[in-house]
Amino acid sequence: MATHLETNLGLLQELINKDPESYKEEFLAEYNFYIKTIQLLRLQPSLNHADLQSLLELINFLASASTHYPKEGTEYAASIMEILNSRLTGLDPEIRVAFCKALVILRNRRIVDPLAVMDLFFTLVPCEDKNLRKFICGSIKALIKKLTLQYRDQKMLSKVRTFLFTKLKDSRSIVVRTAELVLIDGFRKGFLKDAKTANALAECCLHKISRIQIAAIRFFLGSLEDNDSDDDESASEEDQKTLKEVVVAYKAAKKTRKKKERYMKAKKLLSKGKKSKNENAGKFCNLLAIRYIYDPQTFAERLFGLLENRKNEKFETRLLCMALCARLIGTHRLQALSFYSYMHRFLQPKQREITRILLYVAQACHELVPPDIIEQLVYVIAQNFVSDRNTPEAVTVGLNTIREIFANCPFAATEDLLRDLTDYKRFKNKNVSMAARGIITLFRAVNPKLLHRKDRGRPTQKLKDLKVAEFGVEYAKEFVEGAECLPVEADAIDRELNDESDDTDFDSDFDTEFVEHDSLDSDVNMDSCGNHVVVTDICVNNARSPNKESLETNDQKITFSDTKKKARRVCETRILTQNDFRKINAFRLKQQVGYDGKRRNDDIKLEEELGETIARHNEENGLTRLKDIEKFHKKLRKETKEERVETVKKGREGRQQFGKPKKAGAHVGRTNRELMKRKNFQMVRHKLRGKNRQRSFKDRQESLRKYLLRQAGRKI
């Protein structure tokens, strides 16, 4: 039995797990054999394949079974760490990885200190072994995940994070690179999502090694395009493996309709999940990380100084630095005036990645930048892009960029420049004319006085009450706009009725008249101006006042001379509900409508785009998008058939199927002749007699006669 157990370590491990004390002698025998093998390994580092495989199995067995024997387990862990420290490069790569895996098992069983194991792993990182580095990086990520979710040991997690921060200052670039990847993964997955991690990674953006710098900048920009990231590689391998398993399982099984539906559904879900994962993995974490930076002004100045001084860097690296500078300036509303003059040299139509550079310029503009700086920037773009000597595509991109810049800081526009730009609305190319009309639509909502009189459109109530934005001036809201459409609470009405002499916000006279209602569903009636409010008996029934009976019989019509005072009064005297806000939104929409006649589809589309832009600017991340710069209303080239089919299929995703179910079945399209072939022979046997016999001369003559008559168009 003992001999059989010596050769079968798996069976011995199972028996030890069931009864450790009974099989301690067998474990000690294997442990002594391990010690002798290690002594032999020090004398003869190279082993043949058979001895190597037996040693790997023994290392794994001792790591799993030593948890039942604490003393031997501690000695075993110490021997592994001593071997790895003393013979860093002399060991066989497979044995070195096996020792590291054993240490991870002992670390998870709390036999060895996690910080000691991490210190040893970072000592092994400089070894030229890609598989070892990948395993070390993955094991540290797994440790952070366990400490966060399973153990919930914040104290140890804090020590691990501090240890990683110290490794970011190491002189060896590969060590810094490994610690950086671990911290980026921890932040993205939410295990180390705090300000300390974000600021430690911000220092990596200023590192002298470009590889480390690019990885940190891409993290802040929310990009996952890091080809050296082991986590991304492993994730893609797992997705590929899962998809392969689904395909193989379907091909090996019997083909049925139900299995085919399951296969197609699983394939679609895998591709859709992978696509959404790649799209959404870094969208919010970059904004959060940028907001976590302690001193964004200093950090942006240091990064911009790095961009100016390093003139021999690759263009891609400089482009990433521009992107991060623009994102920092736009998010934190920073003052970096030299950045705008630096970008002038790149604003040429033939510049590489010019649309991205224009995007970064638009993102860096905000309402706190002085108007003269923005005006110079817009003049450079207009001079280099918006001219007849450029292609229509360049003019369109230039106008789109100017529109996005003016959307961020409209007070930088001048009347002469704006009228020159809006003259392109009559350009023969539709993309150019739509881009120019987009600027007109923007300033109709922001500052119509700068436009030519015929471009201002019909005035609405909202435009009459519009305040033109000025540099450095913020308008604080004292009330909810549109609240004048709501009735004042009945208690406030009673107080006003009882004390008319002290009233300063309302008119002194109240005209009381009877109002007939068809139904009791409406609480408020308004005239076209929105200044007259009729308080019905429903409103009065909910009030608690001494004049309740008189208010029940007579509806009060209250006229307010100033809608702003009325709106302020409404906001001060009542708590607004969701229904109130719906009425306010409907009232504001009614104010915006100035013309009920026919409107062109292009105008409707431009107004919808402006509404989306304003809504996005009001959100936390109101930065310009690349598709806003590259917006072409008319496609530049005709789509191929494959592209059109792909667009149609993409539009059908998630849409409910239409049509009769019968037309989508498995037996659609078969003729009666084909269906007859599938019938039982006894069912069609009687037809064979008539099918094979020959017709008589009279039958053939009669058939020919009828055929000729039909051909001649005569009735038979």
CATH class of the domain at 288-471 and 609-629: Mainly Alpha
Strand content: under 5%
Classify the helix fraction into a percent range.
Answer: 55-70%
Total number of strands? 4
Residue ranges: pLDDT <50 for 5 or more in a row?
A: 224-239, 490-561
State the CATH architecture of the domain at 288-471 and 609-629: Alpha Horseshoe
Radius of gyration: 39 Å
Count of helical segments? 35
Query: Roughly how many Å apart are the termini?
Result: 101 Å
Q: What global shape is seen?
A: flat
CATH topology of the domain at 288-471 and 609-629: Leucine-rich Repeat Variant
Structural class: mainly alpha
User: What about the largest sheet?
Assistant: 4 strands, antiparallel
InterPro entries: ARM-type_fold (IPR016024), Sda1 (IPR027312), SDA1_C (IPR048292), SDA1_MD (IPR007949), SDA1_N (IPR012977)
Protein name: Protein SDA1
Domain SDA1 N-terminal: 61-428
Family: Belongs to the SDA1 family.
What does this structure look like?
Among the domains are: 1-112; 288-471 and 609-629, Alpha Horseshoe (Leucine-rich Repeat Variant); 483-594, no CATH class; 673-712, no CATH class. It is built from 35 helices and four strands. It has helices at residues 2-7, 9-18, 24-43, 49-65, 70-86, 93-108, 114-124, 130-150, 154-167, 173-188, 195-204, 210-221, 230-252, 257-280, 285-291, 296-309, 315-332, 337-343, 354-364, 371-384, 392-408, 415-422, 430-446, 461-464, 490-498, 537-541, 548-553, 563-573, 578-592, 601-618, 626-629, 641-652, 672-677, 681-692, 697-712, and strands at 511-512, 524-526, 532-535, 556-559. β2 and β3 form a beta hairpin. α10 (173-188) runs antiparallel to α11.
